[in-house]
Amino acid sequence: MSIGVRFLGSGDAVASGGRFQACILVSHDEQQMLLDCGASSIVALKRRAVDPSTIDLVLVSHLHGDHFAGVPFLVLDGQFAHRERPLTIVGPPETEARVRTALINMYPGFADERPRFPLRFVEVGGGEVVELEPVQVAAWSVPHDPLSNPLALRLSLGPFSIGYSGDTAWTSALTEVASGTQLFICEAQTLEPKARIHVSYAEVLAHRHELATQRLLLTHLGDDVIAADDLELERAHDDLTIDLESP
C-alpha cells in the first residue's frame, strides 16, 4: 500500500522562481486529492497531464488566492468537460461563499448554472475533525491573515498521515500537526524572519527537533530560499514526486 505525493505547485503568491502556486496532488488507489488549489492550478494540472475531472477532493488551507482561487476554474473545467465524478471542497469557514463569489465575479453568466456533477462544500474550523470516508481531515487554527481563516491541516488515510502547515507564522501548533506523520509539508517563505505572517527557513530549522515527522519538506518558497545553496532542510520543487510506503 502506498500514497503518491506530487508537488504540481510549490511557489508563493507571486510565483517566485517561475513556480506554480500551491497545489499538491495526493494519490491513493483510484482517489486523487489536492492540498490547496491556487489560481494557477488548472494550468499546473494540465501541463502534467493530470485530468482535473479525476480530482475527488480539494483541501483548502486558507482563503488567499494562491491557495484557493483555482477552485472556480476546477468547477468551470468540470462543466466544460461534462464531468460526472463528484467533487468535494473542504476548507475553512466561508469557503463556499468565497468560491461562489469568485465565480460570479469572473464568470457572471456561468455562475448561476447548476453544476452537471455533484459539488459539495465541507467547512471545518480549528480544532475540528471531519470524516470523509476513507479520508480524515483534522484542522488547527494558525496565525496568518485572520481574514483568510487560516488553517493547518492533517490528512489521514489508513496508515498514512500527511501534515500541512498552510501559510502561518511559527506556532507550536505545527508540532501537533507534524506529530506522528510520514510527511510534514511546511512553508518557508524567506530564509530569515521577514514576514510576520510567514514561517522562515531559519525558524523551521531551529524547531526541526520538535517536528516528529519521518520526512520534512519545505514549500511556498520565496526567491532567496529557492536560490540558496547547501541548505540542510529538503525543499520541494514543481513536479517533485515521492511515494509514501505503508509503515
> Going by CATH, what is the homologous superfamily?
Ribonuclease Z/Hydroxyacylglutathione hydrolase-like
Taking pLDDT < 50 over at least 5 consecutive residues as the criterion, the unreliable ranges are none
Beta content comes to: 25-35%
Say what the CATH topology is.
Metallo-beta-lactamase, Chain A
What do you see in this structure?
The protein is of the alpha/beta class. It has one domain (2-245): Ribonuclease Z/Hydroxyacylglutathione hydrolase-like (Metallo-beta-lactamase, Chain A), CATH 3.60.15.10. Helices cover 20% and strands 28% of the residues. It contains seven helices and 13 strands. The protein has helices at residues 41-47, 65-68, 71-80, 95-106, 173-178, 201-206, 223-227, and strands spanning 2-9, 23-28, 31-35, 57-59, 87-91, 119-123, 129-132, 135-141, 151-157, 160-164, 183-187, 216-219, 241-245. The strands form two sheets. The protein has a seven-stranded mixed β-sheet with strand order 6-5-4-3-2-1-13. A six-stranded mixed β-sheet has the order 7-8-9-10-11-12. A hairpin with a 2-residue loop joins strand 7 (129-132) and strand 8.
